[in-house]
Amino acid sequence: MPTRKISFITNPIQRMNKSPFIWKTFIKLSQQAEKSIVVQSPYIVPTKEMEQYIDKRVKPKVQRIILTNSITSTPNAMAFSAYLGVKNRVIKAGSKLYEYQKPYSIHGKSVVYDQRLSAVGSFNLDSRSVFLNTESMVMVDSEEFAAELTGAIETKISHSMLVGNEGEPVDFNADSQKNVPPVKSALLHILSVFTRFWRHFV
């Protein structure tokens, strides 16, 4: 597969709090994007500390798509309950947010910028990956690779629910939605009341 460049980035390896190198790299690339940013992450839990690095001036023509797990598919109760408390902030930031329904769950972490530069690795969109964990990502500068990766993400989007501006379902597979266990849904919403106090660690 033709490739201009492949590079490897990582957070510092010291213990505890780390300089958010990967996060700052992603923010810089997002600011440079001209057409589109496509994100796939199993967990999305933005914090105020993460948002301090974001330039609020967004290019209006840049399409931003985020794909993550739903109540149906999530395997991580703590992370998803924390996400429930901040989901509206993700939407109001100007992103189209999709929640994957089934089968299985999303575990891949990837970003595609302008259908050319791709990032694949272990980095989640949460405070643990930004400040605590020693995450790493492989950067691939290749339209062909970006097309393959975007195609895989779009396949999952076809089995996902688009979330509206107020957090309501806009477009979803009714059969998938019916499979949400009511007990699981209730417990996650109750847990979200408490996980807001320790979002930095989920």
Automatic annotation (TrEMBL):
- The PLD phosphodiesterase domain covers which part of the protein? 102-129
**One GO molecular function term?**
phosphatidyltransferase activity
Task: Name the domain of life.
Answer: Bacteria
Q: Note the Gene3D superfamilies from the entry.
A: Endonuclease Chain A
Instruction: Output the SUPFAM superfamilies linked to this UniProt entry.
Output: Phospholipase D/nuclease
- Which Pfam families does this one have? PLDc_2 (PF13091)
Entries under PROSITE patterns matching the protein: PLD (PS50035)
GO terms, biological process: cardiolipin biosynthetic process
User: This chain belongs to which protein, by name?
Assistant: Phospholipase D
Query: Which organism encodes this protein?
Result: Priestia megaterium (strain WSH-002)
Ranked from the top, the taxonomy reads:
Bacteria, Bacillati, Bacillota, Bacilli, Bacillales
